[in-house]
TrEMBL record:
It comes from Agaricus bisporus var. burnettii (strain JB137-S8 / ATCC MYA-4627 / FGSC 10392). Keywords: Branched-chain amino acid catabolism, NAD, Oxidoreductase. One of its GO terms (molecular function) is NAD binding. This is 3-hydroxyisobutyrate dehydrogenase. Pfam families: NAD_binding_11, NAD_binding_2.
Length: 334
């Protein structure tokens, strides 16, 4: 049963946390956050919201079946979620969604609250989005007197489920301190990267390096096989030599060449970090590179390789980005 706006407004904001965006990452993160908050303070209030109301309802049903005494409401809209809680966490797809949810819903609804409620509000956005958009939204939030951090994550769906994410945080010292204990319920490493936008800057630079490395490892593994090398031997050589990196030692794109490990390549590239999201992140890097006149020749090349892999094999969009190896194999006529 959905609550009315008036019912959500009656929730004590201080004890309430709202989570907006219950997709692959958000649902796991919210589960960890709320279960830990519930264990510490069983009178906590939880509010969940998603553009697909069935997702929020399914989350609530599942949570309440495991924590029957918990107070959890489904908000129809981000407006309802914002008025209900002092702490608002968002995990949305990208820049347009963050702009719409904050500038179109959260900020106007906070502005209608008494000023002491506004100043005690903390917004945590864990979306991976454009740094400039994130900074603009944070300064709108700060302008009305509330606090905000950008806190994108590294660690993927498995890390979100296990509660082992790394959070890369951008914001003032005060907002970082307030967000730290909330983020610690969802992750293992909480790193203050600098002022507003710095968390996203760090996240985008990391994924730029990762996206390029995954392609070159796929290239090396393919070339090695063309030269007659056993892929397991080649992987062992790279992983104990100067070419070794996460893309080769943990996420190797060739099935069966990491004994004792189970990368997505062993499950036809299911699970992991999907190519569509990696393409989005490469686009964020190349766009910000252009704006800052920073040459990114490998980043631009990698962006077009991922785009081309999805164009020629659309099913790769929803597979782990190490499936770029499959695309290169196709180009090699294999
Ligand atoms: P997702 O598409 O599964 O989830 C996004 C959720 O936001 C969906 O449930 C969607 O319905 C909801 N949503 C969209 N617009 C909304 C609105 N206006 N109001 C309320 N809800 C709305 O995406 P995801 O995989 O969970 O990724 C979320 C973010 O995390 C992205 O920015 C992504 O780049 C980043 N990220 C993802 C991974 C990963 O492995 N999936 C890893 C690291 C970072």
């Amino acid at each position: 049963m959905h609550p009315s706006l008036r019912c959500l407004q009656r929730l004590p904001r201080a004890k309430s946390t709202s989570f907006i965006g219950l997709g692959r990452m958000g649902s796991e993160m919210a589960y960890n956050l709320f279960s830990k908050q519930f264990a510490k303070a069983p009178d906590s209030q939880f509010v969940v919201c998603d553009a697909v109301p069935e997702s929020a309802q399914a989350f609530r049903d599942n949570f309440l079946s495991n924590f029957p005494g918990a107070n959890m409401e489904v908000a129809h809209t981000p407006v309802q979620a914002a008025v209900a809680s002092r702490t608002i966490v968002t995990m949305l797809p990208s820049s347009p969604h963050v702009k719409e949810v904050y500038s179109g819903s959260i900020i106007p609804s906070l502005q209608k609250l008494p000023s002491e409620d506004i100043t005690q509000t903390l917004c945590i956005d864990s979306t991976t989005l454009d740094v400039d958009v994130a900074r603009a939204v944070a300064s709108e939030i700060n302008a009305i007197g509330a606090l905000m951090v950008d806190a994108p994550v590294s660690g993927g769906v498995a890390g979100a489920k296990a509660g082992t994410l790394s959070f890369l945080v951008g914001g003032t010292e005060q907002s970082f301190k307030l967000s730290e204990q909330i983020l610690a319920s969802m992750g293992q490493r909480i790193i203050h990267c600098g002022p507003s936008g710095a968390g996203l800057g760090a996240k985008i630079c990391n994924n730029l390096a990762l996206g390029v490395q995954q392609i070159v490892i796929a290239e090396a593994m393919l070339l090695g096989q063309k030269l007659g090398l056993d892929p397991s031997v080649l992987a062992a050589v790279i992983n104990s030599s100067t070419g070794g990196c996460w893309a080769s030692s943990v996420n190797n794109p060739v099935p069966g060449c990491l004994p004792g490990k189970s990368p997505p390549s062993e499950r036809d590239y299911q699970g992991g970090f999907v190519t569509a999201l990696m393409l989005k992140d490469m686009g964020l890097a190349t766009e910000i590179g252009k704006k800052h006149k920073c040459p990114l020749p490998l980043g631009e090349a990698a962006e077009s390789v991922y785009a081309e892999s999805i164009r020629t094999k659309p099913d790769l969009a929803a597979k782990d980005f190490s499936s770029v190896y499959k695309y290169l194999k196709g180009r090699a006529g294999q």
